[in-house]
Amino acid sequence: MARGLETGRIEPSGRLAGGAAGLELRDGLALTQRDVRELQLAKGALATGLRLLAARAGTQPTHPARLSLAGAFGNYVSRESARRIGLFDAPLDRVASAGNAALLGAKLALFDDDLDQRALRRRIVHVPLAAEPGFGDAFAEAMGFPPLP
Questions:
Q1: pLDDT in tens, 80-94
Q2: Pair 115, 123: CB distance under 8 Å
Q3: Which of 1, 39, 51, 81 has the largest count of CB atoms under 10 Å?
Q4: pTM to 2 decimals?
Q5: How many domains does the chain have?
């Protein structure tokens, strides 16, 4: 997707340039308009979540101390490409793969005798992002791709 944006084959709106039905990647494998839209929806939700949570924390999404990309996505995504499509605005030196963060958290909770699980549960806040003021507008804005600099 990032490469398609850089070469002008995908427009910042997410449309395939020139009304193309798809972008041939290799040997019959193509990126379709539907693929682009699916990525836009996922990227828009994640980017909006990052922005809204940063605002709740009183910080800027462009200046996190650290941004961890978890799971298989975090292990295999190109940080440069993720930044290019607008998933996050943080400097690349503050972005790292976290691996299987859910498994690590479960292990810590189960095997750390010093962890006060009740105190931890009291500190955790569930934030239903879709109910946050401004989510809809921020989501619609985040679905587009940043134009080339």
A1: 999 999 999 999 999
A2: no
A3: 51
A4: 0.83
A5: 1
Sign of CA dihedral 23, 46, 72, 38: negative
Tokens 């859910």: give the residue: 102
Residue 147 in any domain: the answer is no
Residue span of the structural domain in which 55 resides: 2-142
Q: Read off the DSSP letter of residue 146.
A: P
Q: Is residue 116 included in any domain, yes or no?
A: yes
Q: What is the mean pLDDT of the chain?
A: 91
DSSP 16: B
For the segment 119-130, the average pLDDT, to the nearest whole number, is 88
Tell me the pLDDT tens digit for each residue of 49-68: 999 988 888 888 888 889 99
Q: Which of 66, 92, 62 is nearest to 77 (CA)?
A: 92
Q: 13-49 burial, b for 16+ CB within 10 Å, e for fewer?
A: ebebeeeeeebeeeeeeebebeebeebbeebbbbbbb
